[in-house]
From TrEMBL:
GO terms for molecular function: glutamate synthase activity. Residues 71-355 form the Glutamate synthase central-N domain. The lineage of its organism: Eukaryota, Metazoa, Ecdysozoa, Arthropoda, Chelicerata. Transmembrane segments: none annotated. This is Glutamate synthase, amyloplastic. It comes from Caerostris extrusa. It comes from the Eukaryota.
Length: 560
């Protein structure tokens, strides 16, 4: 870069210009304003703040105490959730893997009470390979992100750097308590309970959402730096509002009131535990998440011997976070996003089965093409989970439900591929039994109707057939179809650089619809490859139908 200063009549070299810009503001001093969780812990310890949630005592645990925690059922945990997802994450530091495809019903067709996260499908770059390999190209991936009040980016100042820098978005129980009690650098935190009384039943959800978002807006206007949406009070007396609903409603309300950049939104929730849950929360504006019920449940399971006793509380947290980090990185890579700052709040999701009233209130500008469940349905399902968790009949809630979301179970969720259909198919294949095949078709079609949107379609017969003259002729319809056929024929040309013969291939693509052939030539001469300069010459020619391109001489021009 070279700058010509016409007023001073001097030339400014590249190094001098960059040095002049760098010295214009005290950037190094500004960066010292940024702080981390370690700084908060140190400040809290110096001030005498201690966690209100001491480490769990494992000495008096019973063999079934973990699954007897009724909060697990309240937040829709299942046996599969613990055994197939969370425990492997803690043991292996990796997200649990399964086969490609999911033959369980969509959330809007489920006979159980799915969490609202299941209504969202992650969008992705539709190419044959991921834009980013999150593991081999880990150097470009980052989950680090500053949170808290953000100053005007058009007016550079030290306030832009006075933020909390997080290496990753998952918080431990100790981190959560430090954030609640912090007064570091004048910051203060507002904790908002995202619950409503049991006696309000299904009618309490929408008023609770309105109350939550108004409290958050008031906190932003009154100078709070962080807003924590917490469902810690959920239990026998209070029903939790879904963390995603509360977050979405608050996030968009703050945007509408021009207050979103003044506060950081943090979630303390027992609902989120899977990688997909974390991604949806981050995609809809969460700055950090503390899945407290995961950590508390893992501590209890460790006392029962399900998790190795050699793992300390910090190791359980680090293993779980490592698994979540890997999962989030894989999801971001599908869209070619390498940093959490770009993914956060981007709403790169599509809703399947949510009504417009829910989307407009909590997930504005999210595509929801088919409509679906309303706030009333979500509230009733939420209340049903409460009734299951805190039923007066103890025998109904001693053991977590296992509806078979991943493995088929008799009486559980429907699956497209169930044992009855597979057994009928095997019988038909082995014995050429027509009746068995018909049973397979019948069972499969029934499962498709129960699990997929396409199964919901029905052909409606018109009472009066249309006249045959209004039907387009078959020969006209066929013209719009194309069958692609690729053939090869060898040819050669002369390189003008080395005067050598070069073989190349013509790709003959036949399309009957347009009654013509397209020839594509791709040629690279070895003399160019030796110079590590690969030239690709592409020639497209149209040949008469039914004739191959004649072999002959051509010339490669390296300057092309």
């Amino acid at each position: 870069m070279l700058l010509v200063d016409t007023q001073a009549k001097v030339f400014i070299k590249d190094e001098d210009l960059k040095l002049q810009i760098a010295r214009k503001r005290p950037l190094e001093k500004w960066l010292n304003e940024m702080f981390t969780l370690d700084d908060l812990h140190a400040a809290g310890f110096a001030a005498g703040h201690h966690s209100s949630h001491p480490k769990l005592d494992q000495s008096n645990r019973t063999t079934s105490q973990a699954v007897e925690d009724r909060r697990l059922a309240l937040f829709a945990y299942t046996i599969e959730t613990i055994n197939m997802l969370i425990v492997p994450m803690v043991d292996t530091q990796k997200e649990a893997l399964g086969s490609m495809g999911n033959d369980a019903p969509l959330a809007c067709l489920s006979q159980y009470q799915p969490l609202i996260y299941d209504y969202f499908k992650q969008l992705f770059a539709q190419v044959t390979n991921p834009p980013i390999d999150p593991f081999r190209e880990k150097i470009v991936m980052s989950l680090a992100c500053p949170i808290g009040p953000a100053a005007n980016i058009l007016e550079p100042s030290a306030q832009q750097c006075c933020r909390l820098y997080l290496e990753q978005p998952i918080l431990s129980l100790k981190d959560m308590e430090a954030l609640k009690a912090t007064t570091y650098k004048g910051w203060k935190t507002k904790v908002i309970d995202i619950v409503y009384p049991v006696h309000e039943a299904a009618e309490g959800l929408l008023p609770a959402l309105n109350k939550i978002r108004e409290e958050a807006c008031s906190a932003a206007e009154n100078g709070y730096s962080l807003v924590i949406l917490s469902d810690r009070k959920a239990g026998r007396d209070y029903i939790p509002v879904s963390a995603l609903l509360a977050l979405g409603a608050t996030h968009h309300h703050l945007i509408n009131k021009l207050q979103r950049m003044k506060v950081g939104l943090i979630l303390e929730t027992g609902e989120a535990r899977e990688v997909h849950h974390m991604c949806v929360l981050l995609g809809y504006g969460a700055d950090a998440i503390c899945p407290y019920l995961v950590f508390e449940s893992m501590a209890e399971l460790q006392g029962e011997g399900v998790i190795s006793e050699s793992l300390t509380e910090d190791m359980i947290f680090k293993n779980y976070v490592e698994a979540v980090e890997r999962g989030i990185a894989k999801v971001m890579a599908k869209m070619g996003i390498s940093t959490l700052q770009s993914y956060k709040g981007a709403q790169i999701f599509e809703a399947v089965g949510l009504s417009d009233e829910v989307v407009d209130f909590c997930f504005k500008n999210t595509a929801s093409r088919i409509g679906g469940v309303t706030f009333r349905v979500l509230a009733e399902e939420n209340h049903e989970r409460y009734r299951i968790a805190y039923s007066d009949r103890d025998c109904d809630n001693m053991v977590l439900r296992n509806p078979g979301n991943y493995h088929w179970r008799s009486g559980g969720e429907k699956h497209i591929n169930d044992p009855l259909a597979i057994a009928s198919l095997q019988d038909a294949a082995r014995t050429n039994n027509k009746n068995a095949y018909e049973k397979f078709v019948e069972a499969t079609m029934e499962n498709v109707r129960a699990c997929t949107l396409r199964g919901q379609f029905e052909l409606i017969k018109v009472p009066k057939p249309i006249d045959i003259s209004e039907v387009e002729e078959a020969k006209e319809i066929v013209r719009r179809f194309a069958t692609v056929l690729i053939t090869r024929s060898n040819s050669f040309c002369v390189c003008v650089r080395c005067n050598s013969f070069v073989n190349f291939t013509w790709l003959m693509i036949q399309e009957p619809a347009v009654q013509s052939n397209y020839c594509l030539q791709i040629t690279v001469c070895h003399c160019l490859l030796l110079k590590r300069r690969a030239y690709t010459i592409c020639v497209i020619a149209v040949c008469p139908r039914g004739r191959s391109h004649p072999k002959g001489f051509g010339r490669i021009n390296p300057s092309v």
